[in-house]
Amino acid sequence: MKILMLGWEYPPKISGGLGIASQGLAHAIAQKHKVHFLVPTHDEPIPKSKVRVWAASNLNYEADYWENHQSVKNNIEIQAISARLMPYLTPDFFSHTSARPALSPSIQKKPFASFIDQLPLSGQYTDSLSLELGKYTLLAAQYAAKFKFDLIHAHDWMTLSAASVIKELYSVPFIAHIHSTENERNGIQPNPEIKELEKRGLQNANRIIAVSSQTKKIIIDEYGITPEKIWVIPNGNSPKVSVEKKINSIKKIGFIGRLTHQKGPAIFLDIAWGLLKKRPDLQFEIIGNGYLESELKSKVHQLNLGNNVKFFGFMGHKETLQKMSELAILIMPSISEPFGLVALEAVQLGIPVIVSKNCGLREFLPELSSFDGWDSYSFVQEAERILKGGNEIKLNQALIKKSAKNLTWKNSSELVDKVYLDLLK
């Protein structure tokens, strides 16, 4: 079977769990099928594997081709120019990536096709995102025309329009793989245009994969999708993660994730404040960037936590895993966490984890310690209990780690394969 995967992120160019999950699943599926993975761009070399990773930025816009598909092209152009897709992450979150020059307003007023060659495909979440999505959609359709794919596997909302166009042009069925919905990312203030893109894409999809039942429920409730169309398949992880274990005399408690309201970093600081009143020897490490960074640093100053809280900014996956292995506890007080790949990685490293009740991983590892995201008091109490140790804690951690062994990309890919076969039967 020949599969075209569409994704906005792929290691080493990532912003979080989406790219890691996309790569892990693609590699596992490629053990059985031919997988092409089309990303907007990649600036760094990608290690050789069975997955053929291709950058849309290496493709040329073919005006002659689109002369035969004028109505489809017009719809793409209208959407690209009219949409105002302010992403859930601000551009400064991506300060670790190289800056790209934006198109001038005067150029953007011209017909889309006239400046498409001047539009860089950065793969970033900037204020030109809608234009980049339009170009990516056109180039993805051209790429699909060169190969006879059996199906399209599109990761998250950024690629749903491209998958829909390919389906329309070539009658290739597509699967929408939803790692998070706009409601989960932005809660009570979702971007209406992104929601509309999600809605149209999910309606056009032949099948939908959700990473948890809570994400499935949101897809049903928000977009009116029939439940029978949605399959719940968890993320996985590599069974063996190579990190150098270090013995630390100082107990470190960590937060790993985007510094956005969704992830609850401000609550993490409340938890730190509560724990430090009883354990002033603790150190708290925050790994990640986001629009709340300056606000969080101000809060650290106001609470007089500067000697105990350290910000590390964005780190690559390997470096993050190394930092994670040094933690005594990982705390994830997320307002919304569709799955929680970071928590799974910590569990498989033997790191105790405390998550919010809104973490999808709880569906697959019900033994995880979990509380309401806003309940910092309960997080503090549980962290104290774990730090004290004892046989009960050790036995529970061993049980969680054993259960997590089933959450591998190989097992997830086998479930995805059932969706493929169901779709093409």
What does this structure look like?
The chain is α/β, with parallel strands linked by helices. The longest helix has 18 residues, at 129-146. It has helices at residues 17-29, 63-67, 70-82, 105-108, 112-115, 129-146, 160-170, 182-186, 192-204, 213-223, 265-276, 293-302, 317-325, 341-348, 376-388, 391-404, 409-424, and strands spanning 2-6, 34-39, 51-55, 151-155, 174-178, 207-210, 230-232, 252-256, 283-287, 309-313, 329-332, 353-356, 369-371. The chain is built from 17 helices and 13 strands. Residues 86-103 have low confidence and may be disordered. It folds into two domains: 2-236 and 410-424, Rossmann fold (3-Layer(aba) Sandwich); 252-404, 3-Layer(aba) Sandwich (Rossmann fold), CATH 3.40.50.
List the topology elements.
Layout: E1 2-6, H1 17-29, E2 34-39, E3 51-55, H2 63-67, H3 70-82, H4 105-108, H5 112-115, H6 129-146, E4 151-155, H7 160-170, E5 174-178, H8 182-186, H9 192-204, E6 207-210, H10 213-223, E7 230-232, E8 252-256, H11 265-276, E9 283-287, H12 293-302, E10 309-313, H13 317-325, E11 329-332, H14 341-348, E12 353-356, E13 369-371, H15 376-388, H16 391-404, H17 409-424
Parallel strand pairs: 1-2, 1-4, 2-3, 4-5, 5-6, 6-7, 8-9, 8-11, 9-10, 11-12, 12-13
Helix pairs in contact: 1-17, 3-6, 6-7, 7-9, 11-15
Task: Write the CATH architecture name of the largest domain.
Answer: 3-Layer(aba) Sandwich
What is the end-to-end distance?
13 Å
Which of globular, elongated, flat, extended, rod-shaped describes the shape? globular
State mean pLDDT (0 to 100 scale): 88
Q: How many independent structural domains? A: 2
Number of strands: 13
